[in-house]
Amino acid sequence: MTTLAAAAKPITSYRKYWASRFGNAPFLPMSRAEMDELGWDSCDIILISGDCYIDHPSFGMALVGRLLEAQGFRVGIIAQPDWQSAEPFRALGKPNLFFGVTAGNMDSMINRYTADRRPRSDDAYTPNAEPNKRPDRAVTVYAQRCREAYPGVGVMIGSIEASLRRIAHFDYWSDKVRQSVLITSKADILLYGNAERALVEIAHRAAKGEKLSEIRDVRGTAFVVQQGWRPDEEWQEMDSSVVDLPGHVDPHLNPYQEIPEQAAEATKGSDPTAPQVIRIESREERLAKRRAERAKTVIRIPAYEAVAHDPVLYAHASRTLHLESNPGNARALVQLHGSRDVWLNPPPIPLTTEEMDFVYGLPYARNPHPSYGDAHIPAWEMIKYSVNIMRGCFGGCTFCSITEHEGRIIQSRSEESILHEIEEIRDKTPGFTGHISDLGGPTANMYRLSCKDPNIERSCRKLSCVFPDICENLNTDHSHLIQLYRKARALPGVKKINIQSGLRYDLAVRSPEYIKELVQHHVGGYLKIAPEHTEDGPLSKMMKPGMGAYDKFKELFERFSRQAGKEQYLIPYFIAAHPGTSDEDMMNLALWLKKNNFRLDQVQTFTPTPMAMATTMWHTRRNPLKRLSRSSEKVDVVRDGYRRKLHKAFLRYHHPDNWQIIHDALINMGRSDLIGHSKHCLIPPTPPGDKSAAVRHRLGAPVARQNSGKPGQPRTGQGKATATPGKSFGGRPQATGRPGAKPGSKPASQAAGNNRSKHKR
Q1: Which domains, ranges and CATH numbers included, belong to the chain?
Q2: How do residues 678-689 score in pLDDT, each as one tens digit?
Q3: Burial of 375: CB neighbours in 10 Å, binned 0-12, 13-18, 19+
């Protein structure tokens, strides 16, 4: 990362735009009246967002807006506009430079719909959680309305929604492969990933008169060009089938080859009678030559028309994109849509610690815009006392969008920056009582973890640093994080700091001292972790560790809790119906839950999100984690309604409503031995009371089936279920979400929160 960042222009090094003379706005304006108060006659850049405006660095619109303001630009915001006409998009007048369009912190389809494709009844990013304040596929709709409002003005799209739809992608909600969002939105340019570096460069170039539609050389951008376009004549095109090879793409030098043999290779085909000048290139020269060749190479992945109808080609395109995701060695990609190419430049170079500090140290008001009054905004309530300490995730979980969006390289802030933000919360945020709710990020314990050798990191093509095992080149030292925790809780006015971000426990067990620090000072009774499953089949498709690491972490967690004299519990999260999960896998997971006396209150069912590797499995029934062919590994996916209900029911085996479907499934699976009152049994032999007939009718499950569902029939759906505290079969008091809980105690759902966090900005 150090080598990469050294080659990039710092985002703090640009000369400020002339409008910097207006200074910083208390809040970025959302109306003409606010612009008048600031003395502005126009905005240079107008941001359109599907979220309400909260001036806090955890919200992408505020972070981007304040970053542009720091470059000297006048930035206005139109938040959650009525998209039925173009008039609301004229609220701040015509921008001098361009519109910046974002769906918000979440993909609009995931924000609006459950995995059962049912509309959600609330929106955490809207005042008073009011639903239906953004359209489906918001980036496309907003961009089109910007074009209608002011034809000829440049339109830039970004955010996680645009980022994950930058090439042809499977769209779960319409159940088909859709074109790149660049095609549907008709935007001039798309910024993907962490876009600060690209955004600042493009804004300054636009201010000098360049059109967005003419900027073609910025990393982390995508755009539409005519088929066959090249930046210059030195570029060469490579077919993606060349990339999809096991191991290294570039040929290795033969270590056993003698120098004379190397010379012979270098002169092969020349006139043997002519005098030869033999020069042996150094390793550094050879590497430099290869980098130069890669920098001028574009890889053509199968066209939209091909991947839309051929699952193997779709899986191949997905695998190629993920193999070309390391900023240190990724090449440009191009994909044909009709007669036009969607061109993707290599990923953005990650920010340095100094640049991260700059971005998070901007003058945020740290509150919702005053126009919302006292409205309740759930997303704000969740994070207003939390601090983001890093970005990125090298876990590579196939179902998660973080890696595809933020990348695998960890970008960390300095201790000084983080501690300063805690003081800002203490001094500026109303209602602060001394409790910091989180010091985290995509993963709680990846702060300042990286590859031991920048050169190895730059050339690596692995999809995960921790699967199937933790890479020997990965630094797993948690001492920096331990030191940060200690300094943070020593600040005046800070009484308690909890850690609520998801913990990577296979990394944590490498540092028992970290677990001790965490357990004794930063767990508020519950700690959420995500094994996701117990069985090797689905875990291998998730790229998650086996349960051995969980068991070791649990042992250390309980030991250090006892030493501290605290009664604390682990709250595990599991996914139902993930690709590669059989009915038997879910049955075994249910048996594990029963053995460990877990009663889950929340159930997470796999949701296919654009560009995720697991979505590729779900759509194609192929495994893109391995080299692909038409005879390659097939993946069992769960699509039909009966299996979907069954997998979800297994996760909540204890609930009376699920007795009938589990009972019938166990009989069909030949596991009637699990029906009874014995300790090893999963469910009792008789239904709970007289409710069974009505419940069974509602579920639509047959009395007996020869098969519980055809292999390879994918399922849909995500749901949350809340158990009645203190009751299970027979009315006996039981734990609700944690082992050893007393009757009537706090359900785990109240501690764990809403599990939409896998899909972040």
Answers
A1: 9-213 (3.40.50.2300), 578-606+617-761 (no CATH)
A2: 999 999 998 876
A3: middle
